[in-house]
Amino acid sequence: MKILIVDDDDIALAVASKILSNNGYEVETAEDVETALKIQHAHNIQIVISDWNMPKMTGIDLCRILRSLPKVVGYIYIVIVTARNSKEDMIEGLSAGADDFLSKPFEPAELLVRVRNAERILAMEIDLKHSETRNLALLSAVPDTIYRISRDGILLDYKANSSDLMLVPEEEIIGAPLSRILPDLLMQDAMVCIQNALQSKEIQTMEYTQKVGASSYVFEARFKDSGADEVTAIIRDISDQARLEQMKSDFINRASHELRTPIANMVLMAHLIDGGGTQDEKQEYWDVLKNELGRERTLVEDLLSVGRMESGQIDLRLSSFDLAEMLDKVVQQMNPQARKKQISILLQIIPALDQIPLQITADEKALIQVFVNLIGNAIKFTPPNGRVNITLQRVHAGFEVSISDTGIGIPSQDIPLLLTRFFRGTNAIEEEIPGTGIGLFIVHATLKKHGGKIKVSSELGKGSQFDIWLPEIAA
Length: 475
Description:
The chain is an alpha/beta fold. The protein folds into three domains: 1-106, 3-Layer(aba) Sandwich (Rossmann fold); 143-237, 2-Layer Sandwich (Beta-Lactamase); 319-471, Histidine kinase-like ATPase, C-terminal domain (Heat Shock Protein 90), CATH 3.30.565.10. The chain is built from 13 helices and 17 strands. The chain has a five-stranded parallel beta sheet, sandwiched between helices. The longest helix is centred in the middle third of the chain and has 36 residues, at 239-274. The radius of gyration is 28 Å and the shape is flat.
């Protein structure tokens, strides 16, 4: 990874460059904004660390210029180095486009933490862009409805498939005005697109929201001239795409927060340990530090798992093991987390463990992650003094594991979306329960890879149940 450091202080520039170089980073340096922009133009560097106060143009000026670059350049993660710490200064920096701040003077470890955090965010950005490209390609290749429309807005031809939300008999469409399918509020925009397409010979795009029945949908209309006085319009339902864009935007915000918070806490604990204190205080700091390290590792592992799943790089490492013993180990692992909320976890094996061995051939590490996610969610969404019940039984050609809780439940409209990536339940968002929305996506993808299945049932205010079926031998 190449990093650009901008600072008019030769010593500060040399120190930062040395720290990063010694840790395997390729470094470019600049003493002013003008030189930095030339380097950026030549190398398209994605991580920029800039001092705030510099002659002629400041680091804030550099922020604004970098943020104005075309999107094709890709996202540039900007860290501003400053001794300023007022609320107004932070607002000014964030408004200019800064992603993070590094206070002067800084420790080498602090600089490295900021850079590694930047690498994680950029990696997520790349994953999201790849996902977006694939989704857009799919939507472009499968149009929902096609119209031929005259210059004056008369529908000349119509082709739709059976899944068209506004399916209308051809005899009611052909020869009718465009207002037959569009409300008056959208007619003016549509006619402008038609005229511009005929005049410019280029595709004109119109995005709009329209109510169909009791629900609202987002559509994209593409107009292209197909004759001297007519255009072809391709109408696509992009409601899912619009929802995914919002989910991805929410995910980036959540993931950034989830990544930064443990790092900030770890840095604080390290400073407190260095500052001394009683043995009990130091032990408390160490416990918090270890907890935050575990939290950060879990999130990073989840993000890496999503990336590997989307790139098809997941291969199962099969072995034969006792599913009951594995579940018991997971419960023991999750018990400390449950005890903090006075939540009891009960594991029931049907039949008893000493009667019939419950041997399964699967990827043990992957299944441990599945059940840690599910039991962890049950604990997270269950109020104090609640219960989490786990049952394991042999069923035809496999095993069934049911995980139920006495938690807040899941709104019925959220259940069909619950296993998709980045999705979070509406009540989880409203109650500000932390999470990234990728845990259940990993669970679903892992079970699918094993040839397994998952079923979700829930009642608001009473709890949820996840029923998992696994074959005796992974498919």
